[in-house]
Each structure stands twice: as structure tokens, then as C-alpha cells.
Amino acid sequence: MSGLHDVNYTELTELQEKALPKILEGDDALIKAEPGKDKNATFVIPALAKIDAKKKVEETTTLILTPNSAESKQIDELIWAMGYHAQIECASIDLDGEEEQQKELLKDTPQVIVGNPGPLLAILQDLRYIFRHVDYLVIDEMDTLFSLNLVPKVNNILKRVISEHQTLIFTDTLTDEVQNFAENTLTDGIAIGFDPSKSKMLSKPPNVPGNLSQGYIYVPNRMKITTFMAHIEETPEERCVVFTASKRGTDRLYKTLRKHNFKATSIHEKLSEEKVAQRLANFTNGDIQFLLVADISAAALDIDNVAQVINYDVPSDPDEYRYRTDLVGSGKATRLVSLVSKQDRSDINRIEKELTQVPKELDLPKKVTQKLKERKKNQKKSGSKKQRNGNKKSRKSKKKSKDSGLELPRPSYDKLSGGKSGSSPKKDKKSGVIQMLKNLFS
């Protein structure tokens, strides 16, 4: 506390209010933070608190990896200033230091080591050094470490930390590389400072509840909304979350539900946080029966005890399917139903392969079955009508040609040896002599 007073820390920043309680509880975390003193203090304060709480520390228990020498020195100075009264020692192993001098610093086993991956790894390999007592590890500016191609060196340093430890990863931007690294490095990690849709990105998807009734309905061609409406009419007055693949899908369903006097609201990623929170509150309070969701993972929804979840569009990711089952309350009356169109069949097959508890195929709602029968009857009627109309037209055309006295055009025989009359190619000698005489006297 004296050290915090020395550096004029009197109030927590917004980042520290979110992150410090979780860090002090010992959680692994991926934390969004911009470079600067605010971010540095967020991991330095818990580090010093951990060290100060121990009776005696004679080994290195805190390791901080940061990409450049300027940042390493700033963190070193902050630790020295905050930890002065507690006599906490720190060493900076950075790009600007002399190797032999830094080796001596490492041999003295300071309680905190701040290092740049390149020079630190070189010294560790040269001394064959292993961290056996580190219980607090910080990887700072993970996005920059990737851009500078320093992650392979970070991984080699991590192999030399053989003790159990809490790991914190700080990043300004969340790339796929950073997220994958965090998922592979953190143990039951949490995400802090990101938008709600990313809040559970590091948590493992839940198991499908054993008492959950789950099934799917094969939807006839061009009858998805009809099937959806028929299904919900068979399961009335239930709090229901409906997932679609796009905002356009939620808009169509919203209009259809309102037309049939159902209370519904929708949320999607383009809405502001305030509007999403308000609409979720309306749903959880019971004012709204149907919550339509597009472009938002079920992992980001802070709701539970839903009576029914409907996959209007089947998710392509089995983990997302698992998160959706987690929204459903316990009990035999609860269910998850997927509407499987022709395009969704590969997705439902993938889900069936990965889940231990496989969803069952459900019968079509009675209204849909009845409409299918009517459709087939209409198709038969229209087909036979067309055939009759076709026969009538052909008969009429024949009759018309006879009545008008017109004959159908005859085929031409110009190219045949018999000429247009189609006579035999053999010549009549008599007719040939008479014709010759006519030509002579004409």
C-alpha cells in the first residue's frame, strides 16, 4: 500500500476494476488492454501482492515476457517503485543489456524477472536454466509478439517453466493467432475486456444435459416457416429462444410471429450493448415469449431456464450446439429442436457424430402433414388438368384444319428420281416418242 501511495495510485481504472478481482482469485486470463502504465499496473499489483503474502521468497516466482526493451525497463521501474517498501527485487533481461551482466542477474534469482524473449532464451539455453518455482507468468502484448515472430521463442521459454503457475496474456487486438494461442496455453481461462460475444471464447463447451429432450424435424421443401409455426403452436406458452443464421432470418420470423399475435423480440451483433441488454431483460422478465437470435453465440447469452431452444438454422459447429443446450432449463419438459432443411443435413450429421447423446428424428407437426397431403392432391389435379387441356388443343387444331378446307402441306420430292409426282424412275417408251414428236412440230 505504501508503494501504491508512492506512485500516486489512489483509484482503480476501468480495466483494473474488471481484471484485478479475477487475477487475485488465481484465474488464467486473456485480457484486452492498450499499452501503457494502466495495463502494466494491472499485472504488477497482483504480482507484488502474491510475493508480499509469502513469508520468505528466495527464488524467482514471477516471470514477465514483453516484446521490446523500452517496455521491459518501464515494467522493471514500476516494480521497483511499487515494491520498494516490501524489498522486492526485479531484473530486466532485455535487448539493450550486456549478456554477461544479465547472466549474473539471473543467477542471483530475483523474485521477478522481466525479459524480452530473444535475449532471455539465449541466456536460459546457455545456463541450462529451469524455472522451478514460478507461480505467476505474464505474456505481455501478445499481438506484438506475433507480428515480430517472437512466439516460437516464447514457447521455448514456457517449456522451461516446470512449476504450476497462473498465466495471464495481455493483447491490444484479438487476432485468430492470439485466440488460438490463448486457448492452447491457458487452463480454464477467462476473457476480460472483450465484447460480450467473446466473453466465453476460452471456456470449454458444456456437456449436453442427460435429461434434455433433443430432436430434429426434416422440413419439406419450401415449408420451413410453416413447420416452425406449426411446431410452436403445438408447444404453446413456453419461453423460447430461436437461433437463425442471419438478421434477415430473424426479421422474417419476427414479422410472422407478430402477425399471429406472439410476443417476440430479436437481437443481433449490429445492435448496441444497451439495446441488447434491454431486450434480454424483457425476455428474462417474462414480458416476451420468443427471443430471436442472429450472429451471436449462445455462449455470450446470460440467460438460463429456457423451456425450449429452436435451431431454425442448424449450427455448423458442434460446440455452438452444445452451448445452446446449456441455455435450456432442467426437467423433462425442456427441449431443443432443430429444423433440418435439405441444406442443413450435413450439419446435423456432423453434430450426431460428435455428441454422445444423439438427437432423435421427430414427426412432422400435424398441420404440416395435412398441408403436404393437400399439396400432393393439388399437384395431381393440376397435372391431369394440363393433360386434358393438351389433348383438347390437339383435337381442336385437327378439327379446325378440316373445317376450313385447308390441307396440310405435302412433303417435297424434288430430289427423288420420280420428280414431284413421285412416279417410277423407269421411262415409258411410248410417252417418250409422243413427247419427242410434239417438240419437233411445236
Automatic annotation (TrEMBL):
Region (Disordered): 362-442
Start-end of Low complexity biased regions: 414-424
Single GO cellular component term: cytosol
Biased composition (Basic residues): 368-401
Keyword tags: ATP-binding, Helicase, Hydrolase, Nucleotide-binding
Helicase ATP-binding domain segment(s): 20-192
UniProt keyword annotation of Nucleotide-binding present: yes
Sequence ranges assigned to domain Helicase C-terminal in this UniProt record: 224-380
MF term (GO), any: nucleic acid binding
Entry-linked Pfam families: DEAD, Helicase_C
Sequence similarity: Belongs to the DEAD box helicase family.
Annotated protein name in UniProt: ATP-dependent RNA helicase RhlE
Source organism (scientific name): Fodinibius roseus
